[in-house]
């Protein structure tokens, strides 16, 4: 039986963060109810009992704004329409402010076993600059309550390159996070997205410069490693055995089905996307989709995605490109960007920092 991951995009937020380009609208109870009905309809539409669903991921937006009953109904529908693996990894992204002990117990009962908490920083000053609605203490409380509720697989998002962030403040955030009962960290460099409120001269001028951002990234890799979180992807770090199984599907070119406005899929031999339009999603019997790639996972895409992973690219998987890749390796190895053990090509932390250009050199 072939496996499948299901991604559910929940496009609601309490308040839009100034730096965020993810698709979300302001939460409304009525619209959330209509949205959940549409998700259930779509799960029924794609029903396939021959697919073993081994990962489910509620992303957003702020999926934890949905009620426990709504989330439970979506999981039950997936269980009824697909072959849901009893050991499936079921993740929800959550804003710390939405996580009360009752809510956390309800999420566990609904079948959610992995929590991805949007912490971003353990400095209140940095959280204020980001416009986050929670404090560091609130984030820590949410994680501790989650562990008390039985969550044994907790991830925290950490942001690098926040205005005013310094190597010392980042190291302090990591040290504080590492004291918490968490198993995974996603550390993303803040990128100013076009058209967001952060896309202005004032914010750009307050960002750490390129060299400091590079220093912050390499410091994060080092400090997280020191605290037991090994880097397994450009931006992801985990204790042994706690790598995100769902996200690894993306980097390994495995099938995933996305449901909800702005959700992407690699499914049925195609890549397709649902438009960023909640009204259109709610109002359609089946979610509208636009094909973005009719022949996904060709060599270039496969190699690019594989090289994002610390395990890298096995040249045995791309024998017809071996000679070409081997020819390009020496200067990249000399520069400290790439490792090669005779079989596997992988990027070093310095290589991950400039991964786009390193991967482009190797693959194109
Ligand atoms: S960062 Fe998260 S909480 Fe903020 S607007 Fe984006 S999705 Fe919503």
Features:
TIM Barrel; binds iron/sulfur cluster; single chain; globular; alpha/beta
Describe this structure as you would to a colleague.
By secondary structure, the protein is of the alpha/beta class. The protein folds into two domains: 248 residues, TIM Barrel (Alpha-Beta Barrel), CATH 3.20.20.70; 53 residues, no CATH class. The chain is built from 14 helices and 17 strands. The longest helix is centred in the first third of the chain and has 18 residues. The radius of gyration is 21 Å and the shape is globular. The chain binds iron/sulfur cluster (SF4). Iron/sulfur cluster binds next to loops.
Give the helices and strands, then pairings.
Layout: E1 2-10, E2 12-13, E3 25-26, H1 29-46, E4 48-60, H2 68-81, E5 82-94, H3 101-109, E6 114-120, H4 124-130, H5 136-148, E7 154-160, H6 167-178, E8 184-189, H7 201-206, H8 210-226, E9 230-233, E10 236-238, H9 245-251, E11 256-259, E12 264-267, E13 270-273, H10 278-283, E14 290-293, H11 299-308, E15 313-314, H12 322-334, E16 338-340, E17 344-347, H13 349-353, H14 355-363
Parallel strand pairs: 1-4, 1-11, 2-3, 4-5, 5-6, 6-7, 7-8
Antiparallel strand pairs: 8-10, 9-10, 12-13, 13-14, 15-17, 16-17
The protein binds iron/sulfur cluster.
The site of iron/sulfur cluster has 11 residues, from loops.
């Amino acid at each position: 039986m072939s496996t499948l991951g299901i991604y559910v995009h929940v496009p609601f937020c309490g308040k839009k963060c100034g730096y965020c380009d993810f698709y979300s609208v302001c939460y409304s109870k009525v619209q959330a109810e209509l949205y959940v009905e549409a998700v259930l309809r779509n799960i029924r539409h794609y029903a396939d009992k021959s697919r073993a669903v081994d990962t489910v991921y509620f992303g957003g937006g702020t999926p934890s704004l949905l009620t426990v009953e709504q989330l439970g109904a979506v999981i039950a529908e997936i269980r009824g329409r697909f072959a849901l693996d009893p050991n499936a990894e079921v993740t929800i992204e959550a804003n710390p402010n939405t996580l009360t002990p009752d809510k956390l117990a309800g999420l566990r009962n609904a079948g959610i076993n992995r929590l991805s908490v949007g912490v971003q920083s353990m400095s209140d000053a940095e959280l204020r600059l980001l416009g986050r609605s929670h404090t560091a203490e609130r984030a820590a409380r949410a994680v501790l309550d989650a562990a008390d509720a039985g969550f044994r697989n907790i991830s925290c998002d950490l942001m690098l390159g926040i205005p005013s962030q310094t190597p010392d403040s980042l190291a302090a955030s990591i040290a504080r996070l590492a004291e918490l009962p968490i198993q995974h960290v996603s550390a993303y460099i803040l990128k100013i997205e076009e058209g967001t409120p952060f896309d202005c001269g004032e914010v750009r001028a307050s960002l750490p410069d390129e060299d400091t951002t590079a220093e912050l990234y390499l410091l994060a890799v080092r400090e997280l490693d020191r605290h037991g979180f090994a880097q397994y992807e450009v931006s992801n770090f985990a204790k042994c055995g706690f790598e995100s199984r769902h996200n690894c599907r993306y980097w390994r070119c495995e099938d995933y089905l996305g449901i909800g406005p702005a959700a992407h899929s690699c499914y049925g031999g195609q890549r397709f996307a649902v438009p960023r339009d909640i009204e259109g999603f709610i109002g359609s019997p089946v979610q509208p989709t636009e094909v973005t790639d009719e022949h996904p996972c060709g060599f270039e895409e496969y190699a690019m995605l594989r090289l994002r992973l610390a395990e890298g690219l096995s040249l045995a998987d791309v024998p017809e490109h071996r000679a070409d890749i081997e020819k390009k390796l020496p200067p990249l190895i000399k520069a400290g960007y790439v490792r090669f053990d005779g079989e596997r090509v992988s990027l070093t932390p310095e290589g991950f920092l400039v991964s786009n250009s390193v991967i482009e050199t190797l693959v194109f």
